[in-house]
Please model this.
Amino acid sequence: MATLGNPKNTIEVLQKYGFNFQKRFGQNFLIDTHVLEKIIRSANVTKDDMVLEIGPGIGTMTQYLCENAREVVAVEIDKNLIPILENDTLSEYDNVTVINEDILKVDIKKLAEEKNNGKPIKVVANLPYYITTPIIMGLFESGVPIENITVMVQKEVADRMQTGPGSKDYGALSLAVQYYAEPYIVANVPANCFMPRPNVGSAVIRLTTHTTPTVDVKDKTLMFKIIRASFNQRRKTLLNGLNNSSELSISKEVIVQAIENINKPASVRGEALTLEEFAALTNEIIALTEE
Ligand code: SAM
Model:
């Protein structure tokens, strides 16, 4: 079985199986060994690790993971790829399990318990871009023990995950990701590293999960509702954003007082607040409504 990760061997496998790319599944396969090596290295995959791969495709990165990890679980939605993986590209490895399922429907917590005794797993993927946010947020919010997530995403999304106040890319995704993890952009990846070429830029980002939360917030769910409301109407003030939100029912007086209590002007916009300030605002709102 040939090593993949270059155009020649990838085309050979695709032709052998008469495989047709499915645009709806975000199929852009990696054909660059340098990028593959960089992903594995930055994820710091070792023989102690269980790695979850989302969307193995024809198994290009999966081969690298099998060589470097103790155990690999690869979840692929496209049933046409399963025979290629099982009978061909991964047939030599006995440390991989391929699951033909939509990743959004898989109980990853159960998988980590069964295959890694509930210890933190690593997630590595060249993600299907159309569901990047639900996948990342699903991983964080489902309480799966995770050490790090190293993924290829759309360049613009990587920027949004990593940035802070003052940037046009700053928003609810930045805050959600940074609440759970430390983001680091590992590399920008040009379109010619994929087959077929995507028509957007790509980047590899590593999200190293915080072992203890970096902010102290009394109600995480409320904080994220506040964050969403603040960015729903970007040009409005924080006060109007929170006051107009259908997700929240906080009186205008409480909002005004809470903003004052965190030492911000009444005209402040949500996009100017850091994660720590959103946490402080949430705690103030809780304290004021409890009074
Ligand atoms: N890992 C391969 C590589 O790097 O060459 C393929 C990456 S390709 C960008 C994304 C892969 O995710 C495709 O194989 C696609 O079929 C799969 N995929 C798309 N949606 C999925 C879903 N909801 N659950 C699991 N896999 C999915």
The chain is about 40% helix and 20% strand. The mean pLDDT is 95. The radius of gyration is 21 Å. The longest strand covers residues 146-154.
